[in-house]
Write a structure and sequence with these properties.
The protein is α/β, with parallel strands linked by helices and 234 residues long. The strands form 2 sheets. A 5-stranded parallel beta sheet has the order 2-6-1-7-8. The chain binds 2'-deoxycytidine-5'-monophosphate.
């Protein structure tokens, strides 16, 4: 809960995969008492649904018509449990499944489908109606909340991001290699940047942050300072 008398704002944090934007966004939301939404988890949940219903072939061709027809049946929600937040797909906790390499390797083509994006953007806009929200993703500052009072665009080198992601995956017990993670990061960057529908790009009014050489504490402090400046200058 926001216990201060500060005005509530909308905070959009976009950036490249594994740039650490989710951790920063989550920590800021916790510090200032805002709701945190990981929009990437929503694209991952749709991808998992498509995989569970055999809508993606081994060569990554997507049965778009079936997926579009199924969109009304896909319910995505978040459950907060103490410090942790879980993604629910039709009521089932899929937090661990959506972080697998199988989902990571399929999520970018799925998230390029315009009808799917429209459905998720609408849900995200509803979630942010009351403000007091930190949302991270790829198109939050450009498409979901173009009027957000605070916008950040995070990047780090592909090698730094792959190393960070590898450490996270190893911690979760996922079997993978640095090369596999690096290739997934580079491939996702390319698909995310070149898709026709709301591609990954920095909003003109977003503040850019390259966090390649920053510690987690430094990033969190940088973001909190920006929030304080933003509120002070409203
Ligand atoms: O943030 P992430 O790596 O968990 O996101 C997974 C994928 O979802 C990413 O490769 C692109 C897609 N995505 C998107 O297209 N738009 C968003 N707002 C968030 C994620």
């Amino acid at each position: 809960m926001n216990t201060t008398t500060q005005p509530l704002i909308t905070i959009a944090i976009d950036g490249y995969s594994s740039s650490g934007k989710s951790s920063m966004a989550r920590q800021l939301a916790k510090t200032i008492g805002y709701r945190y939404i990981d929009s990437g988890a929503m694209y991952r949940a749709v991808t998992l649904y498509a995989m569970q219903h055999n809508m993606i072939s081994d060569d990554l061709a997507i049965d778009e018509q079936s997926l579009i027809a199924a969109l009304p049946e896909i319910d995505i929600d978040f459950q907060v449990d103490g410090e942790r937040q879980y993604t629910l797909l039709n009521g089932v906790n899929v937090e661990s499944d959506i972080r697998s390499m199988a989902v990571s390797n399929r999520v970018s083509p799925v998230s390029a489908i315009p009808a799917g994006r429209h459905a998720l953007v609408k849900m995200q806009q509803q979630m942010g109606q009351q403000k007091g929200i930190v949302m991270d993703g790829r198109d939050i500052g450009t498409t979901v909340f173009p009027d957000a009072e605070m916008k950040v665009f995070v990047n780090a080198s592909a090698q730094t991001r792959a190393q960070r992601r590898l450490s996270e995956l190893i911690e979760k017990g996922v079997a993978t290699t640095y090369e596999e993670v690096l290739s997934n990061v580079i491939n996702r960057d390319h698909i995310d940047e070149t898709r026709a529908e709301s591609p990954l790009r920095k909003a003109d009014d977003a503040i850019a942050l390259d966090n390649s050489t920053m510690s987690i504490e430094e990033q969190n402090q940088w973001l909190l300072n920006l929030y304080n400046d933003t509120i002070a200058n409203l």
